Amino acid sequence: MVRAFASLFHGYNTPRLEPQGSGKMCHYIVKLTDAAQVDDEVKAWLRAAYTAAG
């Protein structure tokens, strides 16, 4: 399972991001159970997270 920060994913409209509610460090979870699920969409999210982290 991959956890992602909410500030990075605001505005994304996809059922792959599961909201976790307020008060949590990570507001969305992306569940990945197979390497094949790491598609272009997930790679773009990871790239954006890496860039935002500096």
Overview of the molecule:
Residues 18-51 form the DUF5655 domain. It comes from Pseudidiomarina fusca. Pfam families: DUF5655. It is a single chain. With 54 residues, the chain is α+β, with helices and mostly antiparallel strands. It has one domain (2-53). The chain has two helices and three strands, in the order βαββα. It has helices at residues 6-9, 40-53; strands spanning 2-4, 17-19, 28-30. Strands 1-3-2 form a three-stranded antiparallel sheet. Strand 2 and strand 3 (28-30) form a beta hairpin. It is globular and about 30 Å long.
What proportion of the residues form beta strands (DSSP E)? 15-25%
> What is the helix content?
25-40%
Which residue ranges are poorly predicted, with pLDDT under 50 across at least 5 consecutive positions?
none
Rg to the nearest angstrom? Answer: 11 Å
Gap from first CA to last CA: 23 Å
Structural class: alpha+beta
* Shape label: globular
Strand line-up of the largest beta sheet:
1-3-2
Q: Please indicate the count of domains.
A: 1
Strand tally, please? 3
Average pLDDT rating? 76
Tally of individual helices: 2
Q: What pattern of helices and strands is seen along the backbone?
A: EHEEH
Largest sheet: 3 strands, antiparallel
Domain DUF5655: 18-51
Protein name: DUF5655 domain-containing protein
InterPro entries: DUF5655 (IPR043714)
Organism: Pseudidiomarina fusca
